Structure formats: structure tokens, C-alpha cells
């Protein structure tokens, strides 16, 4: 009888210890989950590491809305700890001939995606396609793959890129002056060239699709690229200024300026930054 009681006592203690360990791990798990945002999990200088996430998409593609929604979550929720996701939604134009002309599409983005296909050794292009820091590509609706790729890209050395809205006057009312600073540029791949790129994106765009694969659907988009242009090559630090023109149909309060440095041949992104134009309305 004594032996049985001792045995039950030992079992009870073991159960309590197991329960304690389970609760301890359960409460600690979110801090170790790489997808859980944690404000204290930042780079050594107290800032988040920027990662450029491009989505090649189209309103004519029935598989694209889930990828558009994922990009919206990445942009608005910033779910990866210690990372600033800088989103670019690039609408390709090769779906336009299949029933619905995407109003945000451009041959420029189809060409850019085709360049990536050559880099990745692929003979075909597809939507939705997500590209992270110009290095990794996958189906754009794959949330777990996106989180893993973003977390991995954040570990790479990045240039310190700063973009700010300047206060100097311009000759035209629809022009916005911006200042750009680049420092601590990582070593460029042998034989390659770093190029400074500027994009203007607009969020909150909506479409009522009446034809094609998404006929009858109401689609919402985030970080749609309205303009993408190269500003020239970089060989080191950079301090400069430029102006950008805002088209009348763009909603200024939903616009962002994105500046990034990208190797011309390898497409590796070396650094990025963005700023909202809403602040300039104040």
C-alpha cells in the first residue's frame, strides 16, 4: 500500500512538472516564432531591416486575388519581426488580351518579370509571382514561403537608404521634391553595377471587374506601382535630390515614394527605403 501511494505521488509530481514545462514553452513560443512581430527584435541600430517584396499580378488572373491579399497583409501588418517589408505590386499586361484590360498594367512590368525569369533560369512567366529582394521567387499566394524568404533576406547586409520629402519650392504644383541618401553600400558582385531605382506606389485602389476570369469580382490593391524609373548607377555613397510628378488621377494621401538599390545584372537588392506622401499634405 505504501509503495502504491508513493508511486501515485511520483506520478502526480511528474504531471505537475510536465504541465509547468508546457505552459512555460507555450508562453515563450510567440517570442521565438520568426513570423511574430516583436518591436524589440530590431537591428543593432534600432531600425528594422528593409526587404523589398515584389508581386507580379493581374486583375485578369483568377489566382491573383489571394496573392494581392497577402501583399496587403505584409504591407499593412508588417508581420515579420525586425523587418520592414517594402511592397511593390507590379501589374503585367499579358493578361489584357484575355477579356479584361487591367487598368494598372504596364508592358514595363511584364518586361521586368521576364528579366527575372531569365535570371531564375525559367522559360516561362506566371502570375501571381512574388520576388523577395530580387533573389528568391515563388507563387505569390504562398504565405509561409513569403515569411521564410523575407526573414532570410533580412539577414543580408543592406545599404543605409534614406528618402525624405524636401521643403524646397518647385516650378510646378504637381511636382514633389525629394532628397535621397545612400551610405554603407555593400560590395557589388564582380562585374555588376548597382543602380538607384525610384518607384511611386498607390494603395487603396479598387476595380469592379466585368470580364475575364475575375468577372463580377470587386478587387482591392495595395502598393500598386504607378511609376518605376532608374536614377543612375552608384559606386559608393550618394547624396542627391530629384523631383517626381504626381498625376491628377492619383490619390496623393495613398501614395508612397520607394527608393531602392539593385544590382543591374543579378537583380540583388542592396537596400531600400520609402516615405508616404500624406505627410506633405499637412
Explain the overall architecture.
This protein is of the alpha+beta class and 282 residues long. It has one domain (49-281): Immunoglobulin-like (Sandwich). The chain has four helices and 13 strands. The strands form four sheets. Strands 2-1-3-4 form a four-stranded mixed β-sheet, with helices on both faces. A hairpin with a 5-residue loop joins strand 12 (255-263) and strand 13. The chain is globular. It starts with a helix and ends in a 6-residue tail after the last strand.
Q: Which secondary structure elements does this structure contain, and how are they paired or packed?
A:
Layout: H1 2-32, E1 49-57, H2 64-77, E2 83-91, H3 107-119, E3 129-132, E4 136-139, H4 143-153, E5 160-165, E6 175-183, E7 194-202, E8 205-208, E9 218-221, E10 224-234, E11 238-245, E12 255-263, E13 269-276
Quick take:
The protein is an alpha+beta fold. It has a single domain, classed as Immunoglobulin-like (Sandwich). The protein is built from 4 helices and 13 strands.
Largest pleated sheet: 4 strands, mixed
Q: Classify the secondary structure makeup into a structural class.
A: alpha+beta
| Overall spatial form | globular
> Strand share of the residues?
25-35%
The count of β-strands is 13
CATH topology-level name: Immunoglobulin-like
SSE succession:
HEHEHEEHEEEEEEEEE
The pLDDT mean sits at 86
Compute the number of structural domains.
Answer: 1
Uncertain residue ranges:
1-45
Count of helical regions: 4
Strand arrangement, major sheet: 2-1-3-4
CATH class: Mainly Beta
- The end-to-end distance, rounded to whole angstroms, is 82 Å
